[in-house]
Amino acid sequence: MDVVSPELNSLLPDEIMDTEDIEDVPHSQPGTTGVHSEPSDDASVPMETDTPMASENVSLCLATSTATTKTTDSVTGTSVTTSGLQKLTTPFTISPANRQIILNKVASQASEAAKSAGNPPQVIKQDGQKLLVTAIGKSGQPIVLQLPHTGSKPGVSQTAGDTKSQAPQFKVVTIGGRSDLKPVVGNQVTTLQTQQLKTVQIAKKTPASSAAPIKFIITKTVNSKGISPQTSVPPVITGRVLTQSSPVMPPRTITLSEPHNTNLQSIPGKKIAISPLKTPSKVTVVSVASPTSSASQKSVALPVNVALGQQILTVQQSTSVSPVKVATSQSTTQNIKPVAVGGVGGSQFKTIIPLATQPNVQQIQVPGSRFHYVRLVTATTASSTGQPSGPSTSSIQTAKPMVVSTAAVRMSVPVVPAQTMKQVAPKPLTSGPQVVTTTQTQQRLIMPATPLPQIQPNFTNLPPGTVLTPAPGGGNVGYAVVPAQYVTQIQQPPFVTLASSSSFSASTGIQTQARLPLNGLSAAETTSRPRKPCNCTKSQCLKLYCDCFANGEFCNNCNCNNCFNNLEHETERLKAIKTCLDRNPEAFKPKIGKGKEGESDRRHSKGCNCKRSGCLKNYCECYEAKIMCSSICKCIGCKNFEESPERKTLMHLADAAEVRVQQQTAAKTKLSSQISDLLMRTTPVISSGSGRLPYTFVTKEVLEATCECLLEQAKKAEQTHQPQVEAERMILEEFGHCLMRIISSAGKAKSDCASINC
DNA sequence: GAGTTTGAAACT
DNA sequence: CAGTTTCAAACTC
Fold it and tell me: Residue limits of the CRC domain (predicted)?
């Protein structure tokens, strides 16, 4: 089954498919098209980790053997032991000069073919800070991981230690083949194998602000479908994990780890997720920087965080055999052997990239399913509750890094929980590892879990933030595109994903989240304000009347009746999507976009058609989006233009109201804070003695004084020769006086405290 | 909360 | 493409 069909690839939204500034990657090779692999086919997933300034190269060539393999760093002599992994046919090398990890899963047959074709098995070497992720291929089509070769001929890998200054690099996520890919200057992608390959690309340029743009290129090479998994011919996987690090701060630690037990079958989160941003903005790249703090320190994790917008690209591939294990051996046989490269510095890793697969395995698979998937997790959705379930995920949660120790380099790939990156405080792109995300809310589109080519929507128009997931019970076939948010919601057992833990995003502040306006709404608005629940009654939430559906989201906590906008009705939903797209290919695209070139103002893509509202009420989509009506609007009596006095008045009123609200909120907050502070200071005194204030004053001193008073009364009675009965009475009376004084003092103190608190 | 108004979406 | 109907959100009371 196709995880992502070629059609899908070709139809991916421009935001995703923007290939400018990326290398020209051969998206398909002769004979590749039409190749349909069985769901059980395994695909090799190469991963590249590249640290531009890194000095180490690690090269792994993996065979399909499951035997434990121990590799020795050719440079540093560091050995890497893999357990349950495919046999390493080539030494695991770490090049101090490049600090690169090269993982090459070599299919003997494939490698032979490659050699014969003049493309020897490639040992990926440093190629600047670039990572191209080519992941999703047509069903049956192998995924080709391609490594960019800067300024080099195809098949010619750069020499290790190439430390030349790199041009601004872009992080590129390539998903799906696309014929119109634009070549990237100075970067060439060489197909590793002559076998049928399909390259899907999702490219996004990193924000210009990033001093060191990163380009991630992952080319997945898969054997031809003819090769059965049982065949001894292993696929060749060559990949690099490119870690972006600041030029002055080369990454020093590479951590590779796998979940101890990835029982994918038990993970309901099986899905193919593509979560492009809803925003029209281009796919954002997750930049990873080396820790800025310790230049001398040599431990920098190699992050393979690829994000689209505010999303992190998760590439997982399940295999029957642990594909790659670096560093410590793992006793458990894992279906998925993701290699996670985490962000540097915080040791918070967010990216898991499964490297090894069996021959004919599809490139991206969801644990527990035969789907290979790429998941892009939005920042907002990343807050997801999804966590690894079962034993397989335990390791992930613990994020135990596998460390490959070398004299010069430590490699660690901690597996992190599928949590997410939520709100991340913006951070300068130039500092430290970064995840560039956009706050565009998740536009998500649900696709059928079953192969429905005939009704397959035009993915070009799918709302960003789309997540592909296998339908429940859908087995190996079909996929569904579901909202990432919804995925996290419905995904009781978390799946292994490349996502930053909440702690990472929150505490480390490594991530930078670019907040882009969504349909006229500020990032803050889009992120802080949840979508309003719909109230659809007749549309079944399968028409654009429904805001949820229109935004590509599942209905969640809505008040709708007879809702079909959910996974249970994915077939109907897909049909509805198809219908909408047939009617309007732009149906799921943001209505608010940039105006004409050169115009900075946003504008409605279609313009409004208001007649009675004067375009000054929320009936008007332009006004609702807080934008001016434009020439394309067909409104009558429009007052929503710059000089409109009515509009200005409304704006002033709105601003004033907003200011008042803010002031009130601030006042309440301040008052509450002050009260809390007072309580904090006074509570201990009052509450001590279990809140029974009088006893608070029965201190040792009070007791002693009381006793002295009683003794004094006793002496007085003795001196006056009072009878015993009278003496006892005098003592008791004195005791009563003492108690009264104590109580009186306590009551006075309590009233004082109360007055203070008020 | 019920009813009305409104304009986009859907339909013809 | 225009006119009409349907629909759900926005709005009013």
Answer: 530-643
